Amino acid sequence: MDATSSRWRQVTTSQHAWEAEALEDLRALLPDAAPVQVWTNFQFTDGGRIHEVDALVITAKGGLVVEI
Q: Most exposed: 2, 48, 55, 59, by fewest CB within 10 Å?
């Protein structure tokens, strides 16, 4: 997937060089075509707890949460 693709959404910048490198490797493996969509480095709350997600990948076969 191209780094400038609208299908790749980096919500925040990684604070760790190894994580940023792993996300670049993931991006390189994914096709830049529908229906693939990716969101990286974001948080959500659940009952007051904060959860961090390294990557959420949506494909034709389903959604994947990637923890690096």
A: 48
3-class state of residue 7 by DSSP: coil
Contact predicate 1/27, CB 8 Å: yes
Buried b (16+ CB within 10 A) or exposed e, 42-66: eeeeeeeeeeeebbbbeeeeeeeee
What are the Cα distances from residue 20, in Å, to 41, 42, 52?
10, 13, 15
User: Over the stretch 23-67, which tens digit does the pLDDT of each residue have?
Assistant: 999 999 999 999 999 999 999 999 899 999 999 999 999 999 999
**pTM of the model as a whole:** 0.90
Closest CA to 36 of 8, 66, 15: 8
CB-based contact 45:25 (threshold 8 Å): no
